[in-house]
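Lab meeting minutes (informal)
Scribe: AK
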Amino acid sequence: MRYLKPLVCALLIFALLPAPSADASAPAEKTGRVTAASLNMRLSPSTSAPVQTQAREGDVLNVLATLHVDGQVWYNVHHRGLIGYMSAEYVELLDPTVSLADVAIPLAASFEAEVPEAPSAPPASLRAGTVTTNSLRVRKTASTSAPVVLTLSKNTQLTVLSPETTEADGHQWLKVNYNGQEGYLSAEYVTLSDSASFSAGTGKITGSVVNLRAEPGTDSAVVRKLAEGNDVKVTGIESGWYKVTHSNKTGYIHPDYMKIVPPPAPRAASSSSGSSGSGSNSLSGSSYTSASAKQDVAAGNAALNKANPSATERKIVETAFKYMGARYAYGSSNGKTFDCSGYTTWVMKELGYSVNRSASDQYTRNGKSVNKSDLRPGDLVFFSDKRVSRKIVSHVGIYIGDGLFVHAGSSKPDNRVKVDSLVSGHYGQIYKGAKRII
C-alpha cells in the first residue's frame, strides 16, 4: 500500500502531460512580432534551409505552429503571402496569455520535423494554344449557339485547360483561358504545344499551402511555399504546369492549385455635377470626362486590347487612363494636375511601385531597358527634344500598345493627359528609348 499512493500520483501527472506528437505543437493561430533587425524565413526548420524572404524588426506575422528541432524552437509562420519557418528566439508572441513554454513541444518529445508538402497531384494536362485564323470566337459553352465571350486574332497565344475535346454541333471544342476569361473554341483553329512562353495573365493560388517548384514536376526542388490567395504572374506553360514568377522568383505550379483570374474591371467615367463652365474637365472619382478625354480612352482601350496585355500590363494602363484629361502643370503631381514625370510617378505609386521623380532619373536609374520592337503595355517611353532641354531626356509617358502612348503633354492649348502616337508625328521623331518597371 505504501507504494500505491506514489504510483497513482505519477500516473496522474503523466496523464496531464501533452502527447509527444506534432498535434501537441499546434495551438490556435497566434500573432507574433519580429524582434531582430533582420530575420530569415526559411523553407524548412533548419539554419541550412533556403531563405524565402526576410522580415524586419517590428513586422507582424501569423504563427501557425511551434516545433522543436535539434534543441532549437521554430515557429511555422505565414508572412507576406508565404509559409515558412523562423527562429522563435526572435519572434515575440503578442498574446500576453501565451508563453513559449505553453506552446512549444517539450524537449523530451523533440522530433525531426518534416516540411509540409502539397497534396499528391495527378499528372498535369495543361497545353499552350496558338490561334491559326482571324476573328476566332470563344464561346461561353461548347455550342455554336452559345454567347461569344471573346474574339481572338491570328497568332494569339492562350492556355488550353485540357487537351480533351468536347464534340457538339459538328465541332470538336477545347476549353481555354485567355487572360482570365474561360470559354470554348473550335479545336480546328488552334495548334497545341506542350511548352510555350507568353503572358498568360495573373494566377491566384487556390491551395492552402502550394509549392513553387524549380522544375515542372512533383519531385523537383521547392523554391518557396505560397499561401492561398497569393497572386503570381503567369509567363507560360511547360510540360503541363504553369510557369510563373512571384517576387522575383521563377518556378512552376501544378494547375490543380492555381487559377488564372480576370484583370480588375476598369473604372467607368462619370460626369460631375460640379463642372465649371463649357469645355472644362470635371473630376468625379478620379475620372475626367471631357469629350476629348473620352475619345482618347476609347482609342487607348482599342490599342490596349489589340496588344493582348497580361493582367498586370492592363492594370498599369487602365490606372493611367483614370487621369485622362487632367491638366498639365509644371512641377505638379497631386492627382489633379501633373507634369510628365509627375504623371508617371503618380501612376506607378498608385500601383505600389516607386520610381524617381524626374524623367531623366527614371530613364537612367529605374527599370530595365526595352527595345522599341519589344514594347509592352505599361512600359515607360522616353523622348529627347534638344530644342526643349539639354538633359538626356525631355519627356516621358506610358506605352499603351499598337504604337500609342499616354502622357501629360505640355503643348498648348491641349495641355493635358492624352494619347499620342509613338511611331509618327512629333513624338515619333524624338523617341529616345523605353524602360520596363514592373
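Next up, CB showed the second protein from the same session:
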Amino acid sequence: MTLEYGSSLPDTLRRPGDVPVYGSNGQVGFHNMSICPGPGIIIGRKGSVGQVCWSKEDFWPIDTTYYARPKKDLEPRWLYWLLLHSGLTKLNSSTGVPGLNRNDAYLVPVNCPRLNEQRAIAAILDTVQEAIRRTEALIAKLRQVKAGMLHDLLTRGLDENGELRDPIRHPEQFKDSALGRIPKEWEVKHLQSVCEKIGDGVHTSVSVESYGIPFLYVSCIRNGRILWNNCAFISESTFALVNRNKRIEIGTVLYTVVGSYGHAAMVNEKIKFSFQRHIAYLLPAKELSPQFLTLWLNSPLARNRADKLALGNAQKTITLALLSNMVLPLPSIESQKEIISSIGNVENEIEKTENELSKLHTLKQGLMQDLLTGRVRFPEALLQKYQTEDAAE
C-alpha cells in the first residue's frame, strides 16, 4: 500500500453535512463532501503518531493524517487490523516536529496471506472486537444502575422489609437536613466527628524503583478499587523514611484530593505500601462502616459536594480541613450494612463483567499476534466460505 497525505480543512471551511472528518486521533467533525471513498483507513501523521482509525463511509482526512491506498486487492478490515498490529506508534520521527515518516512505515515487514485468509482473520478479530464493545456497554450500563441505586439508598434508605422508603407515600418517615430530605432516624455528621484519623500521604519526593514496596498515585484509585498493578515502587529504606509516623490499617479509606479528586477505595488487605500527598486517608470510628464511607464518597451526591468544595483552577484541591468538615448521612450501623449488601449484588456483577472484558482483551491480543504474523494458519476447509474468484496470492 501507499500512505497518502490528507488535506487541510479548517473549521471555518467546513460546511454542514454527514461526511466524517478525521484527524490524527479520530473523528473531529463533519463536512458536506469527501475526498476519499469508504471504507477506508486513516493513520495519524502528526500528534497521535501511528494512531489507526477506520471509516465505514466516504470521509475527509485532514493534513495531520495519512490515508491508506492498497496497491493490490486486499480485505480492508484485515489491513486495518494489520496496521494496528504493526507498531506504527513507535515510528515517531526524531527530526524536526515529531511525526510519522511514511518511508519508515514502508519498511515494516508484514505477512500477507491470500485474500480468503485475510477475510477469515478480519472476521474473527471483528467478532472479538464486537464482543468487547458489547461488554463495555454493559459495564457502562451497570455503573449507571449502581449510581442510581446509590442515590436512592443514600437518600431514602430501606424499610423493615428491605424495600426503599417512599418519601411521597410516607413523608412522616423523613426529615429536612443539610443534605436534603433523609430518613428521620438518620443523622448528618462531619467526617472529623466519625473518623479516628484523617491525614494525607507523603509530602516529599521519592525515588521510584523497578520493584519494592508499592507507592500509589492518584491514578491508582478508581471505581472504588486500589489498582495495585498501576502503582510505582519504592525501596525499604525510602519507605522507612517517609512512613515513620504513618500506619495504614485494614478498613482505612483512601480518597483522592488533588487533580482527579473524589475517588475513594478501602484498604481490605494487610499490605505494606505508601502513597503521595494527593491522596488522603480516613480511618472510620466504630459507628461508621468503612464500606459505607467508601460508597458515600464515590456516590454522585458526595462528588457534587466535592465539586463545590474544591479550591483552585488548573489543579483543584480538597484540603484536609475541607475534607474533615465534609458532611455525610449516617444511618445506624445495621442500616449501613443493609445498604452495603443491597449495592453488593450490582458491584459483583460489575466485577464479573470487568473480568470478562479483561479476558476478551487478552484474547484479542493473542489472536492478533497469532493470526497477523502467520504463527497460526487456517485449515483450507475453514477458508472455503471466504473463497472468491478473485482470491489470489
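CB comment: The first strand starts at residue 2 and ends at 5.
No objections, moving on.
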